[in-house]
Amino acid sequence: MEVTSTFAETRGLYGGTVGLLPTLGFFHEGHLRLMGLLRERCDTLVVSLFVNPTQFNDPGDFDAYPRDIERDSELAGGAGVDILFAPSVEEVYGGVSITTVEVTGVTDEMEGRHRPGHFVGVATVVAKLFAGLRPEMAMFGRKDAQQLVVLRAMTSDLRFPIEIVEAPVVREPDGLALSSRNVRLGSTGREKALAISRGLFQASEQVDAGEGRGERLEATVGRSIRSLQVDYVKLASLKTMKPIADLSEPAVLAVAASVDGIRLIDNVMFDWIEGRPRPDRGVFLDELSTLTSLP
Across the chain, what does the average pLDDT equal? Predict the structure, then answer.
């Protein structure tokens, strides 16, 4: 595996079809699963590792975000990555950057409402990665459901000739959605965090039984996480990312809540299959992730 720091150096190593997995780093089994899925679809697998300052509306969250490039390099190499692209802020933004990308409409609610400027930072940095690295395809996980919709819209609207590939949420055996931020949870915090996935699964069971009213599904999740600091629990359209009253189209039941000051997001998407909503609860690891054993 090659580790690069400039767009030009990275492009010079390509051969065949190029797939890109953009990340903030501090890899876990969720990242590794995405790497494996993308590895099957491309000739050159590029993983970008860049803790993008413009998408953090909270400077404290940016400073606290876990970083370990040596660990990430070892994990990426073991996963069959060809190129780990780890640029500097200067390489990505070129000093004073005066161009930003803003996707409107699908960014109005949920993360867009609670994290002002977040999606401008996400869309801008991904547009820069697309323009500078020029992949044929890029993969994003369903855990960041609204981000996935935003980046699909951006890719389509700006006519990037790039296929967006999505992958399911990856969960611990007990249901906790994998996130690099989980490493900051103590044992008590981790137990509290399980209330998020527990509530989503309870709502999913209601949908399987025929419930489709948004207020009922949101209330089920709300009861489960009532002891947490909750930003939102919303049933939203997967097309518009706007709240919907009932489950009558492809949708996402999304949650953002803080556990001991650590903000976590999770969701269950409802795909429309054979005329009815089918919950996508993600995939579950057989054993606890490496995040659980880290100090």
Answer: 96
Q: 28, 31, 114, 118: which one is catalytic?
A: 31
**Residue-wise pLDDT tens digits, 170-184:** 999 999 999 999 999
Residues 231 and 104 grouped into a single domain: no
Please check whether residue 175 lies inside any domain of the structure.
no
- pLDDT for 97: 77
Report the share of the chain in percent with pLDDT over 70. Answer: 99
Q: Is residue 289 part of a domain?
A: no
For residue 155, give both structure tokens: 């890719």
The total domain count for the chain is 2
| 73/122 same-domain check | yes
pLDDT tens digits for range 77-97: 999 999 999 999 999 999 777
Specify whether 31 is catalytic: yes
Residue 22 has pLDDT above 90, yes or no: yes
Average pLDDT over residues 189-197: 97
Please report, for the domain that includes residue 97, its CATH number.
3.40.50.620
Domain boundary among 167, 201, 230: 167
Range of the domain at 223: 185-283
